[in-house]
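Re: the multi-chain job from yesterday

Posting the exact lines I submitted so nobody has to dig through the queue logs.
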Amino acid sequence: MGGFSAQDLTAIFVMQGFAGLSFFSVLLLMALGLAIIYGQMRVINMAHGEFMVIGAYASYLLSGALRHLPAGTDIAVLLAIPVAFLAAFVAGYLIEWLLIRHLYHRPLDTLLATWGLALIMQQGFRSAFGAREVSVPVPDWLRGSYRPTMIIDIPLNGLAIMLLTVLVTAAVWWFLYRSRWGLRVRCTTANREMSGAVGINTKRVDRMTFAIGCGIAGIAGAAFTTISSTGPTSGSLYIVDTFLVVVFGGAGSLIGTIASAFSIAQAQSVMEFFMGGSMAKVLTLLTVIVILLLRPEGLVASKVRR
Amino acid sequence: MLEVRDLRVSYGQSEVIHGIDFSTAADETLAIMGRNGMGKTTLFKSLIGILPASSGSIVLDGRELNELPSHERVAAGLAYVPQGRMIFPSLTVMENIESGLETVKTKKVPDEIFELFPVLRDMRGRKGGNLSGGQQQQLAIARALVSEPKVLLLDEPTEGIQPSIIKDIAHTLNEIRRLKKISIVVSEQVLSFTMSIADRLVVIEKGKFIHEEEGKSANQEKIASYLSV
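And the result, structure tokens for all chains:
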């Protein structure tokens, strides 16, 4: 790689790698919600990005409301996480009830309906908040950066998002594999009719799963506000990458989703530095397509006979 | 206990269950015998609510179940072991059993389940899908039993299972009936298995009950003639 010394390259890889980790964090938070929704209901939620934006705007409103309090920004950043979750959760709950539940068993219709929903929501954001991007003030302790050497520079907000992602992923794991709700979700994912016949109220499970998936996207939105500003269409930029992660990871596998979010985000971020954004995207897509041809069920498929 | 009156089930325009009536008492096993394609599975699916009945009534302890979704029928006291077992393959044995605890207060699997099915205790950490057919059948029965049903529906429990295990299953079903005083409705094609568990036998043909006998005194040759092709 011409023109770069070994030391430069190390620094580039560390910093781009770290930028990739922030991207990975947002992508993973988005993909977790999408993966459990798709895994259970086979609903491809094209409006998932808009639920992230709901979370982002919720943090924006919250920080506006707390602006005049002493230490308002600090409180707002922390409080934004549950508030964003709750806002997106409630929105998801209502939308499942109004729209999605009528469209189960019709995957193509849900695709179209949720895409329409995404457009409606984008216009809603534009009417409510204006087309201009808004940003949330970041408290001082999240600004700055960590400098292990002279040329390596790691932003603190990225570190904070990483930590948040680890916590949320652990919570999702616990919810899916250790709680009664998770058992219901996994039963319904495996066999909907049989789940009903053992006494599980599958419609209630669907609504809850959809709402929780959207709530996690809301958390992604709250995290997103600390690294970037939010506009009405911010969500749509992430939706394609998020789908890529879900399909590549193998729907219904937590480990697969994590591994695929990580590899896609890292590959993008490191390659971007050397060849620019679109070329990096082309290469990532090609690699994913080749791997999916070889392993159609995704990176991690459960080892069990069916 | 369970009373079914004039039950009719259709796939689209074509009716396949043509007005079936039967009732079961507590501590009684009713066997529904019939060849393939005569409507046994359709009947069971409509009893548990996977298929909607086009008309008729299903009353359990005075409560009308027709029109209710499956999970409410389970809460009312029905339990279902489907043809082909249909356990959850990617869940562990323990999780499979726990999934049946949805409609009862306790969230802990009672010990008596493992006394009835000792093999499940040894396998509790394994994925359900990696069990043999006979073990899966026992798991499916265990999952149905933990919901403390009043009526247990079993659709062809011996299908694809080796003869020695079939005997075990017959023994377990008799044990369950004796312990729990529940009524068991089972569909079957294997006459020897049916004779060892049933108090009453009915023959279903083309969606109708055409013959009924008491279990002990049943004319086996006659029933066998209905089952042969």
